[in-house]
Every structure is written in C-alpha cells, then in structure tokens.
Amino acid sequence: MRKSNKTLFSVAATVVLASAFTTSVEASSYKVQSGDTLWSISQKYNTTVQNLQSTNNISGTIIYPNQVIETGDGESSSKSSASSSSATTYKVKSGDTLWAIGKDHGVSVSNLKSWNNLSSDLIVTGQTLKVSGSSSSSQASSNSSEKVSEKETKVKSASVSTSGNNGSALVNEAKKHVGTPYVWGGASPSGFDCSGFIYYVSKQAGNSFGRTSAANLYNQSTKVSNPQPGDLIFFKGTYKSGISHVGFYAGNNQFVHASSSGVQMTSVSNPYWNSHFAGYGRM
C-alpha cells in the first residue's frame, strides 16, 4: 500500500511539473497579428517595449504580421519596474518626448499623461514629471490604456490598409494626404509641416511618439543604410543649418513628405533634395 501511494504521488508531481512547464513555454512567445504594435503587446504580457526590443534584438518599433515575438516570463518586467520605481520624478531636457521618457523608465505614455494630468503630448524643458505611480493607479491606468489600445486597433484596422507590415501601413497612410497644404506647425489633415506630418501619420499607423522636430527625430532614430518603406528620410540645410526636413521613405527611390508646396511624393534623386540628403533612420 505504501509503495502504491508513493507511485501515485510521483506520477501526480510529474504531471503538475509538466503542465507548469508547458504553460510557461506557451506564454513565452507571441505571433504578431495585423495591427499589433510593440506597445500593445507589452501591455498584453505585462512587460515593456524596451524589454521586448532587447529580448528580440529589435532596434526600432517596426514589427510584422506572423513574426514571433519572445515575451519573456515577466521577470525582466518586474526588474525593470523595480529599477524605474527608484526614480519617481524626471526633469525634462531639451529634445525629450513622452515616448522617449516612457521608454527609458519602462512605463507607457498613457501612464505618464495620467500621473501628470497631461491632456496632450506637449512637454517643456525644465518640467518635472512623475515617472512612477501607486500600484492601484498604475493598474487602473494600464487597464484604461488596454481598452484605448483595443479601440485604436479596431479603428486602425478599418481605416489603415496594411500591406504585409507596419512600414506599408505608414506609407499607405502618408499617401492618403498627398495634396494637403503646408501649414507651419500643422499636424492635422487640414495642414501639415514636415515634423507634424510624421507625428500624425505615425500615430494613425500605431507608432505613436511625441511631437518633436526633424532634428530630434534624427537623434532618436536608429540610422540605416538600406531603408525599408516606412523608414524616415532626413535632409539638412534646407532652410537652416543642420537637420531641417524629414519625410517617409516610400520605396522605389521615392519619399512622401510635407514640403512648402504641400504633401507630395518626390524622387530621392531630385537634384535639390539629393543635394541636401542627410540619411535614413528607423524609429
């Protein structure tokens, strides 16, 4: 009788361990669906965009349908949260955006806005921001963000045509606005300037980051020599020294941008733009 009990206990323990292992494996990876972003995946698996980028060797934010993303077991997320919780405030520096600050501290833009009562992405140099909150407010904000994310995904799926990857979604959205007039400081379909165009199109395609200048986008991006559709293309010395203009590379040696003549498609080989070309970047 004792031997039988020991055998039953051993079998039961083996089943439990096998079940736990299987669950862990199943939860450690995720196949990207159309409309997904690193941010929405990080919210779903209780981790951060930074952790997902590090684990999967992703230098920017572009991901593709059917791509398998390793989500980890939550340990790295906990470490990140513990590390970021040591700093509860952050003083905004020149060139900062909510997206960049959130990435550095392992929190979402939605949380930063909630904790600091911000109604927009606008922040100013010298401003002190809360970069951590109580667990209850953080959870509430996270739940709220998840609902907003789901809503945005549904809207995006209905309004943005994605041709196989997020880069195509950016280009398709950008092309919709060809002919829109140029407006200094504009960031809506009624009128764009170059950086406002990048901000609006990226937000519509699910790659939202704070409104900032062409120069700051250049500094924040990962430089690439073989651009893909949706990458940023930068120009210098167009109306001032340094990086002064930005657009979306659209493939086939074309880029779409908000020039002084309005939103248009232009050849990279155009003599004027080619003479001011500065390089490509990936967010």
Number of helices: 11
Proper CATH architecture of the largest domain: Alpha-Beta Complex
The fraction of residues assigned to DSSP E strands is 15-25%
CATH top-level class of the largest domain: Alpha Beta
* Cα Rg: 22 Å
CATH topology of the largest domain: endopeptidase fold (from Nostoc punctiforme)
Q: Which spans have pLDDT < 50 for at least 5 consecutive residues?
A: 6-27, 74-86, 134-165
Helix fraction? 40-55%
Strand order of the largest sheet: 7-12-8-9-10-11
N/C terminus separation:
66 Å
Sum up the overall morphology in one term: globular
Q: What is the residue-averaged pLDDT? A: 74
Structural class: alpha+beta
Please describe the biggest sheet, giving its number of strands, its sense, and whether it closes into a barrel.
6 strands, antiparallel
Assigned CATH superfamily of the largest domain: endopeptidase domain like (from Nostoc punctiforme)
Number of strands: 12
Instruction: Please provide the ordered H/E string of secondary-structure elements.
Output: HEHHEHEHHEHHEEHHEEEEEHE
Your description of this structure?
This is Peptidoglycan endopeptidase LytE. One of its GO terms (biological process) is proteolysis. With 283 residues, the chain is α+β, with helices and mostly antiparallel strands. It has 3 domains: 1-84, Membrane-bound Lytic Murein Transglycosylase D, Chain A, CATH 3.10.350.10; 87-159, LysM domain (Membrane-bound Lytic Murein Transglycosylase D, Chain A, Roll); 160-282, endopeptidase fold (from Nostoc punctiforme) (Alpha-Beta Complex), CATH 3.90.1720. Helices cover 44% and strands 18% of the residues. The chain has helices at residues 2-26, 38-44, 49-56, 75-85, 98-105, 109-115, 135-159, 166-175, 194-204, 214-220, 271-275; strands spanning 29-31, 68-70, 89-91, 128-130, 187-188, 191-192, 222-224, 232-236, 243-251, 254-259, 262-267, 277-282. Strands 7-12-8-9-10-11 form a 6-stranded antiparallel beta sheet. A two-stranded antiparallel ribbon has the order 1-2. A hairpin with a 2-residue loop joins β9 and β10 (254-259). The longest helix is centred in the N-terminal third of the chain and has 25 residues, at 2-26.
